[in-house]
Write a structure and sequence with these properties.
With about 220 residues, the protein is of the alpha/beta class. It is built from eight helices and seven strands. It has a single domain, classed as Vaccinia Virus protein VP39 (Rossmann fold, 3-Layer(aba) Sandwich), CATH 3.40.50. Helices cover about 40% and strands about 25% of the residues. Helix 3 crosses helix 4 and helix 6 packs across helix 8. It binds S-adenosylmethionine (SAM).
Length: about 220
């Protein structure tokens, strides 16, 4: 049964972090490494897209306790858990969709997104990445650690499956439902380049997870 995105994550809050760290191959390696790539300078301004309970932010705050982080997420209960975890940190949390919320211009040194953007199409991501591009300062970058399809066939298969399940369940609205539809790394790279990013690097792979850095 497909579940709406925010319901899916709110319902799984209990045990979420343990699941995430143990069910995804080598998550215990790529979460800390994601944080390593974020800016180390005092009061670095970072935007986290789909921050959830802030697994990546735990590693980041350990390395940069003065970072000023804005976290966006659809799931209110995930955000409440995140707020409870870091009461003494400079953390601004916004509940809503990163597709519709404004990010502002030239105000972040970096953006990060971990295991959130593999639910969306290239067409949906290009305007989102344009918004991220505008929100970054010159030389700013997006660190994207996510689940990727290993072939065009696999990417197309997941898309077909989502369409089939929606049809089977009579879902006709345009809301987000939780179902993994990862792009391939070349298709993700193309979306980032179309949004204006000058350089896109694949900095590491752990099974189906890659860590990309897109620099403005
Ligand atoms: C698998 S969790 C990852 C959370 C965290 N980044 C981590 O790695 O532990 C995916 C998160 O993305 C959020 N999400 C999915 N689509 C979103 C959207 N359109 N706008 C904001 N958040 C979204 C979900 O609510 C969920 O908390």
């Amino acid at each position: 049964m497909l579940e709406k995105m925010s319901d899916f994550f709110n319902r799984r809050l209990d045990g979420y972090e343990e699941h995430q760290l143990h069910a995804i191959e080598q998550a215990e390696t790529f979460y800390p490494l994601t944080a390593q790539y974020l800016p180390a300078g005092p009061h670095a301004r970072v935007l986290d897209l789909g921050c959830g309970t802030g697994l990546e932010l735990g590693y980041y705050f350990a390395r940069n306790p003065t970072a000023e982080v804005t976290g966006i997420d659809l799931a209110g209960e995930m955000l409440q858990a995140l707020e409870r975890k870091f009461p003494d940190k400079n953390l601004t949390l916004v509940q809503g969709s990163y597709f519709t919320l404004p990010f502002g211009e030239n105000r972040y040194d970096a953006a990060v997104s971990v295991e959130s953007l593999h639910h969306f199409t290239q067409a949906e991501k290009i305007p989102l990445y344009q918004k991220v591009f505008r929100a970054l300062v010159p030389g700013g970058f997006l660190i994207l650690t996510d689940y990727f399809a290993d072939s065009d066939e696999q990417e197309a298969f997941f898309r077909r499956e989502l369409r089939r399940l929606k049809e089977e369940q009579g879902i006709r609205d345009e809301e987000f439902y939780h179902f993994d539809t990862p792009l391939t790394v070349p298709h993700e790279t193309e979306a980032l380049q179309k949004a204006g990013f000058a350089k896109v690097e694949d900095l590491g792979q752990w099974a189906a997870t890659h860590l990309l850095r897109a620099t403005k």
